[in-house]
């Protein structure tokens, strides 16, 4: 699919993404990744358009990544701060979104602690016959599509720097380790990494990896496996994705101590020996050093793709804004 | 009055506005409203100028509206966040304003919980012989001129889309319903809507509409009426403005329950039958659905002007910044 | 030294600054000061570059000054808000900085409550072979170089408006009065004001001016004097710098009441008579009026350079970003 034929207005979940769509994003992101290395870094693609970052759940890192992506496309950005907003005055979320619509917003980047809010806003925008696009920047435990897409871009670009495409994943083995249950990052990655004939292995403690996750693999081209122990998942793995461990899970009795977690599921140099020799590690950040993975591994450019993920994040978000914004790159 | 002859430096209150000034704003806002519909959306009128949003009282909606207006005129914007500011270090408000003056601010958009702060800062700027303009974005219960001007623009543009002017209000009947006593929006609208030979009807409970409001109508071209019951105000009305009900008024024993308020003063489809058939409803937002007006009316484009008010807000604020900034539109 | 030969990548402290470096900054700041007076105010020097304001310690004033400087050089800016950031999620400061590096940040402006954080980040950026520049915007009680440089620019520009240079300080007498012990502003000014053969007099109570400050003067071209009483420091002084008094010092029993402080060390019109007739007063702001100096003196343009310091701040910060950014001014 050429970029010119992109038709999706909103990016809410990767559940129904086609290979053509994945590849359109990967190829567009590649061209923006090259713009980032050039001297100018900016393109006028979205000049005059307004991107509103409606982060009902606070986040500096992801908001800054979207904001920078928008600015490099020459869009104007608005930032919504939940603390001082009209929400505390009794306004509904849909009314807040409609206010930004009426102000002239062209694209809304939405993060919310409740799953489904970006979808609800997108439906309302369509019902009102607007052309506004909604980009899910993380909703509850449901989805975080731009994170999974930047993970995909990071992996595929490593496999073929000049021509990243989802078919490169065929036959690869990827392990996702950590708090799968509460992770929107894991859920979005499950969709993208089973969209092709790859092997995806999920690993966690029984409290954080319910058996119903098996259903996500049904009818997908890829194969999905669940493990409560690390070793079978790491065996001959090409990529290991670690997830952020939220410390509040321990007070909820879902986890033992951080030290014990590291002992069972932490990625160390020793454990990496089970994997393919050229295995690479990903992490969506921010990292608890010494918990999800050992501090030295995180900093080892031979294994860690973490900083490349952040850089890819800006390029992939530029691609998403560009594709759904219908801009013409000059 | 042609735009070229605009002389007012600050916009603090509408108390002494002339019809010529209202019309200069309405006509300038119309031209910017058309820019907003064009592909480019931006004009270089205020390039290099600095607009500082000094919001001592937090507000996302109004600040974003002013910020977007400034950006579409190509100005640079600075945002002042009271929480983390030098105010907590013992600095006076005038010294804060003088710091922004010294940084090179050209226009200050000021919101403060105390009435009179924008006026005090404007006086200080004049006393220091600066050319800085001050725009009151809401001070205590005193004034919120840009809100009343966007209400006026919304109404007049409905009456004549190609030539909005204040004279279109002649002979019209407008009702303002709600917490008049504490509302800066009501006070500013009283000035604009009595500046011409129209009928303005204020409605609220006795606790929220003191008799001294009659004085605001004295010597004005328009006629001002006060009511404690809704029906006579709605009878044959052309426009109904509802005000936001602040929930804290109930703990102050100024109001019964929300349900009782809605029963007495809430605008419903049934009550609208008292008005002219083509009556329109305005609300400054954010709305408490089902309190000030019924949820279905709020969403009915046949009656509700609410989203047009928000859109007009950006155009009117562009007009204000443009006129007081002395910019030349290209 | 011509601007073209500037080699320093980071601005962390003034301890080892050369006269040539001071003069390169003063001359570059002068040219930007003139840009600020022109109609356009903006230069495209840093177009496409990203300046990240990482203010781990909240500050509106300094952040806005750096932000405006960056915007006037046409850079894109990112603002990091510690409250809602990944720091609260267990990320280390170096990892936060590396995330901004990976996003494509070219310059980091860093404020932190702990001394040494900007240095640590700069070392890490160098260790990683990046070209990222770090600008210390205040770290604990260690240094605040941009403040001392804007003080220097304000003084030298007064002495020769067309050719500010550090040599103009030769033979001048400068007094710094206030809470020297806890002041990063004082420490940075001690480095710049002893870099030339001037007389620098520090004045405070014994609790706020330990004897070890004498060491800062050793081996420096300038002469450093310590006083516990105001009079000998003010005698024939050309410039008096007052420091902000932090109210929390009183609860720490380091100070008597504000009134007593003002009685002993407050600068008043009467006490200024001890100084040279054309003495000038500086203060980094925000000022506690009637404590560090009398309210009327603060507003007297014959004596006070305070608002010129703020204006100089934007020009000096433009110069710093320009010089370390290696931009070409057009």
UniProtKB/TrEMBL annotation, chains A, B, C:
InterPro entries the UniProt entry points to: Asp/Orn_carbamoyltranf_P-bd (IPR006132), Asp/Orn_carbamoylTrfase (IPR006130), Asp/Orn_carbamoylTrfase_sf (IPR036901), Asp_carbamoyltransf (IPR002082), Asp_carbamoyltransf_Asp/Orn-bd (IPR006131)
Residue sites binding carbamoyl phosphate per the record: 61-62, 111, 144, 147, 285-286
Enzyme class: transferase
GO cellular component entries: cytosol
Binding annotation for L-aspartate: 89, 184, 244
E.C. no: 2.1.3.2
Pfam families: OTCace (PF00185), OTCace_N (PF02729)
Keywords: Pyrimidine biosynthesis, Transferase
Gene3D superfamilies (UniProt xref): Aspartate/ornithine carbamoyltransferase (3.40.50.1370)
Presence of the UniProt keyword Protein biosynthesis in the record: no
Occurrences of domain Aspartate/ornithine carbamoyltransferase carbamoyl-P binding (ranges): 9-156
Gene Ontology MF annotations: amino acid binding; aspartate carbamoyltransferase activity
Function: Catalyzes the condensation of carbamoyl phosphate and aspartate to form carbamoyl aspartate and inorganic phosphate, the committed step in the de novo pyrimidine nucleotide biosynthesis pathway.
Family named by the database record: Belongs to the aspartate/ornithine carbamoyltransferase superfamily. ATCase family.
HAMAP family assigned to the protein according to its UniProt record, in alphabetical order: Asp_carb_tr (MF_00001)
Protein name listed in UniProt: Aspartate carbamoyltransferase
Provenance organism: Lyngbya aestuarii BL J
Organism lineage: Bacteria, Bacillati, Cyanobacteriota, Cyanophyceae, Oscillatoriophycideae
């Amino acid at each position: 699919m050429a970029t010119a034929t992109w038709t999706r207005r909103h990016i809410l979940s990767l559940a129904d993404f086609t290979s053509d769509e994945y590849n359109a994003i990967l190829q567009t992101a590649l061209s923006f990744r090259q713009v980032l290395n050039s001297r100018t870094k900016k393109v006028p693609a979205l000049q005059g358009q307004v991107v509103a970052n409606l982060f009902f759940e606070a986040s500096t890192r992801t908001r800054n990544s979207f904001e920078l992506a928008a600015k490099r496309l020459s869009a104007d950005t608005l930032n919504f701060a939940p603390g001082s907003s009209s929400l505390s005055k009794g306004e509904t979320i849909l009314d807040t979104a409609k206010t930004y619509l009426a102000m002239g917003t062209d694209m809304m980047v939405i993060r919310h602690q409740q799953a489904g809010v970006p979808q609800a806003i997108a439906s309302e925008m369509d019902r009102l016959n607007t052309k506004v696009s909604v980009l899910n920047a993380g909703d509850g435990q449901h989805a975080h599509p731009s994170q999974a897409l930047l993970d995909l871009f990071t992996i595929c670009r490593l496999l073929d720097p000049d021509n990243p495409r989802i078919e490169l994943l065929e036959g690869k083995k990827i392990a996702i380790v950590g708090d799968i249950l509460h992770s929107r990052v894991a859920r979005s990655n499950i969709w993208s990494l089973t969209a092709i004939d790859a092997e995806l292995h999920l690993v966690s403690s029984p409290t954080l990896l319910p058996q119903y996750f098996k259903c996500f693999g049904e009818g997908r081209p890829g194969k999905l496996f669940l493990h409560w122990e690390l070793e079978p998942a790491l065996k001959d793995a090409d990529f290991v994705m670690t997830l952020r461990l939220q410390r509040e899970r321990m007070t909820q009795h879902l986890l033992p101590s951080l030290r014990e977690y590291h002992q069972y599921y932490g990625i160390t140099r020793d454990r990496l020996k089970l994997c393919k020799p050229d295995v690479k590690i990903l992490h969506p950040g921010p990292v608890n050093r010494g918990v999800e993975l050992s501090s030295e591994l995180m900093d080892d450019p031979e294994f860690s793709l973490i900083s490349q993920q952040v850089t890819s994040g800006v390029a992939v978000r530029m691609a998403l804004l560009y594709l759904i914004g219908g801009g013409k790159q000059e």
